[in-house]
Amino acid sequence: MPLSDTGLRNLKPSDRPYKRFDGGGLFVQVNPSGSKIWHLKYRHLGKEKLISFGPYPVVGLRDARDKRDQAKRQLLEGLDPSAERKLARLKDERDQRVAFGGIAAEYLSKLRSEGRAAQTMKKQEWLVSFTEPELSNRPIATIEAPDILSVLRRIEAKGNYETARRLRSTIGAVFRYAIATGRTRYDPTEALKGALIQPQVSPRAALVNREEIGKLLLKIESFKGQATTKHALMLLAMLAPRPGELRFSIWSEFDLEEAIWRIPAERMKMRRPHRVPLPRQALWHLSELQRLTGNGDFLFPSVRSWKKPQSENTWNVALRRLGYTSRQMTAHGFRATFSTIANESGLWHADAIERALAHVEGNDVRRAYVRGEHWEERVRMAQWWADELDRYEEAAKTH
Q: Where residue 41 sits, what CATH number does that domain have?
């Protein structure tokens, strides 16, 4: 007697598995756990075989019958349904290995294995998501420059020119990985150079006028918000780190006796460990900060949970509250402030300034020779810069 949906729903589990047949070899097996699994019993080349169609109700009665009928048609053609399913699965796996989406996933996995920062991986995954669905399921060797340009034009149409430019670069990296692994012969993104709209490059907002820097420091000192935020802004000004490096900093990285902040490689943009000399003024702020957050891991924990750092917008919002627009000053702008004035002073070697900013020399030959940290010079420069900031602040008080 054929099965019905009502009958299927009412089938109860027993101590042992049992079967209920629908016809044509199709049956549902009810297991003691309560699961109901579709199976088809058939014969091929004189041998009895069994193939599973999946669980009920995920695979409904009509779907199970359709699968049975398809299997019967294959048997009429002399094919083994079970073998055909395996072949289809292998084809899907093979297609995935040569599809852009599968290769992109391999490339991202490679980056993770190389220890790329979590934020970097998040951005790369976000960029790759723009290739769906147009490119992800296509064999990579069939993708041409116009196909990629179509995806990039869609992003440009929204005014996201920088995103389109970065996506072209990421797609190119996936193609180069595919070339290296023998799944395509050339990188079509090379043909797109000059085809995209060039985004307007604007320098990061930063104060470089000494009088204005002094006024900013005075405003920070009188900040009425969280005390930790005030200390953060002063440390950004003195140490010129990337905001993320300071925001994620933990107390175990700081040696206040030796006056050194040691940042591990995994938290650095260039994936190299970095040491920061701490001037007297920074040590004072750190000691004050330690009274507030020293019982936890993070120097700047979130107000919601001490297990997480402050939001990335906290410090920029504080600058807005102090009266500075995003075109005047940002948390990242303190680096440009330090770099500009340190270079203009003529007191310090350019390489020492670059090392203080944790920049990596772009020229391979030059990098091979410039290996030192310029540590002693950087210690002197760090104290000079903190003293300079004190002078700017004192001068601002008299105006």
A: 3.30.160.390
Mark out the alpha helices in the chain (DSSP H runs).
5-10, 61-76, 81-98, 100-113, 118-129, 145-156, 161-180, 210-221, 227-239, 243-247, 280-293, 314-321, 333-345, 350-356, 364-369, 375-397
User: Catalytic one among 269, 275, 320, 380?
Assistant: 269
User: Domain ends where: 90, 124, 157?
Assistant: 90
Residue 197 lies inside a defined structural domain of this protein:
no
Active site residue 332: yes
Q: How far is 221 from 12, CA to CA, in rounded Å? A: 73
Read off the CATH number of the domain in which 119 is found.
Answer: 1.10.150.130
Is 269 designated active site? yes
pTM score above 0.85:
no
- Taking only the tens place, the pLDDT of each residue in 83-136 is 888 877 766 556 567 889 999 999 999 999 988 877 788 899 999 999 998 999
Domain boundary among 72, 90, 108: 90
Whether 399 is a known active-site residue: answer no
